[in-house]
Amino acid sequence: MTGKCRNIQEHLYKPGEVIIGGVLSLIQPLEYSLNFTAVPDSNHDGAVVKLKRYQHVFALIFAIHEINDNPGLLPNITLGFDIYDNLFNSIRTYKVILDLLFKQRKNMPNYKCDRKDVLSVIGGFSSEHSMQMAIILSNYKFPQLTFGSFEAAGSGKSDFPFLYWMAPRETTYHMGIIQLLWHFKWTWIGLVVSDDDAGENFVQKLTPLFAQNNICVAFLQKGTGNDLALKHNIKRIIVMAQTLILTHANVIILAMDSLLFHILVLSLEGIELKKKVLIGKVWIMPPQWYFSTSPNGELIGRDILFGAFSFSVHTNVVSGFQEFLLNVKFDKTLRTFLCLVWQFLINQCESCRGVENLEDLHSNVFEMDMSGESHSIYNAVYAVAHALHAAYFSRQRIMLDKGKVEHVNFHPWKLHPFLENIHFNNGAAQEVLFENKELSIGYDIINWVTFPNQSYQKVRVGRVSSGQMFSIINDAIVWNRRLKEIPPRSTCVKSCHTGHSKIVQEGKPACCYDCTPCSESMISNKKDAAYCIKCPEDHYPNENHDQCIPKIISFLSYQEPLGFVLVSVALSFAVITCFVLQTFVKNWNTPIVKANNQNLSCVLLIAILLCYLSCLLFIGKPEKVSCLLRQMTFGIIFSVAVSCVLAKTILVVLAFLATKPGNRMRTWLGQKVAISIVLSCSLKQVCFCIAWLLTSPPFPDVDMYSQTGKIILECNEGSITMFYCVLGYIGFLALFSFIVAFLARSLPDTFNEAKFITFSMLVFCSVWISFIPGYLSTKGKHIVAVELFAILASNTGLLACIFFPKCYTIVFRADLNTKNLLTGKRIG
Description:
Layout: E1 11-14, E2 18-24, E3 27-29, E4 47-49, H1 54-68, E5 79-85, H2 90-101, E6 118-123, H3 127-137, E7 144-146, E8 163-165, H4 170-183, E9 188-194, H5 197-212, E10 216-223, H6 230-246, E11 251-255, H7 258-275, E12 282-284, E13 309-313, H8 321-326, H9 332-337, H10 339-348, H11 372-401, H12 416-419, E14 422-425, E15 431-435, E16 438-439, E17 443-450, E18 456-464, E19 470-472, E20 500-504, E21 513-517, E22 522-523, E23 533-534, E24 539-541, E25 548-550, E26 552-554, H13 561-586, H14 591-594, H15 598-614, H16 624-658, H17 671-695, E27 699-703, E28 710-716, H18 720-743, H19 753-777, H20 781-812, H21 819-822
Parallel strand pairs: 2-5, 2-6, 6-7, 7-8, 9-10, 9-11, 11-12, 26-28
Antiparallel strand pairs: 1-5, 3-4, 13-17, 14-15, 15-16, 17-18, 18-19, 20-21, 22-23, 24-25, 27-28
């Protein structure tokens, strides 16, 4: 460098009819003294020089320059400026505010005389400085436009009614953090804040938002970069750095002053070199953050902070700003106030033959594109200018109406009605809406990418608006190469897979949980599900319990193999029954047919035939009519069949008794007895069925739960009591017939009728006794199959045991089917 900056001018002034004041934060001395005579340059160990923040000065000057050159805005009025550097210090902030307001700089408030022509003040980079400025400015009703972060805790409109915010609300920033965390499912984060009111306010505001969004704080570290406590906090900052290295949280949110951050990053770099470890974290920076540089021009924390995120006030390109910077002439006044910038230019341009150009500065030292904070200052100047324009010409019109034409001496407090809700276009033709003392604008999400040549690039990867609308471009994000996975995972425990839900571990944060599988009818189709959800009734969970699958409609149909086999068997035996009936009809007058009442045999065969055909009612989709006819038809027809068997058995007994001399039983061997037995027994079953229909008849029903993955279409029996009454009555008739036939089995009978009936009833009863446990243990359409099997088996037992021997005799042993056999004379 060619010399040092000595006796730096404390303010930069340009006269005008109306003065806009500015209080900016440019140089941060470590060893601060209010009466310093020299401000150290960027190579000095005793200060952190914010060269990038000198752009704030140029933005304010550029805005005033544009307005003065605009004939449509404030014609005949020239704006001037008076800019101070508060050196990041509270005492200095109070002093420069008084210097702004009073010409003699004697710092004696509450005197109206000797006041400067300052119309408004732009400044307060931090909320703390904004409040300190507002305490004095509010007494004089000066409009104050702050471009720092909007912190609602200290911005009560009743306390500071003349304070206007040119930055988005802090709630927008907070929700931007929450939405960014949720976008990448980061729920286990570290928090490092300044140990002051701003840090405490940040924690208090964010803590309930974390709780509402199931985000947990792995650790909270507080520190200070205050020069008075710095020496005592070095060990504390080193411990903080070690915590950042050892933590399992891969996402760290920072809310601290620049000096503390500067020291913290240097500590991290020192630990990296000493312990030879690489720190790979995702850092979420404060809104006004940017890289600091070391004395030799290297980016501090270049590798550690690679891929960091920050939030910057949403900006549009301001055409003309770069050209303005390129044409800045460093006259004596500018050189004195902007000594450090000018000194850097001299150092960079030793071969430039005395021509200093801001473009020659490295981007990590000074940016040519307008930053978010500079854009807020730019808009603040335009807001004041448009409010003054509206107020000035409103006052002029009133005076013209009164017939007066004079220059208006406008007072600062008269600006407020025009400033509170103002809508204008700035010099970049960007629409700016200022409502209720707040600027309706959001934040851009910035991804910081560094390069080995000590340069960096700010990549705009998303945006969060004041309406909390969030958008992000994943493909535009560049992640730190030190991260173990991309994008990184930052959770207390491994994620619960789909098909599981979370269970919070007792005594631990909500983010530290166990995983439990979903129950039988529940699913979870996303990771880390808070709870499992129940599938709709017509769906069921798949094997992994992560998807609901539509249930298959199930009923015993003709198309499936089981239904086809049962139908085939029923029809086959129905045909066989027809052949048997035809054989009996053809041999109607033969002894074996006439034996034991051929009419009764014919009725029994017809009943057996109808029983086979009734099986068709059980197959196919259950309908209202088929459900009503199924059990009723089966119950009545089977009652008729068993009644016929009972009548046959009784007739065998009566026939034996009638052969005894003097027995009157012969009179009971007529058709009337058989018809009476069949009708009386069958009518009782008909009565049961009618009662069933009148009380609770069968109806089509849907069973969603008996079988997993199936919707079973079935016939609900309605009254289970009546269903078992119908079956029980058939069982009673069959059992009674079996007992009678069993007792009569040894009676002399030419064709062994009693023995065949006994055997048929034994088969019948065995089938239906085994049916009961099979019916109760079977589900779905197989219930119908079991019932059909019982019907077919018992029906076939009657046909085979009673009629097949007779058919065999008729067809193959006609010699036994003679009258002589009946009289006891065997031929040949």
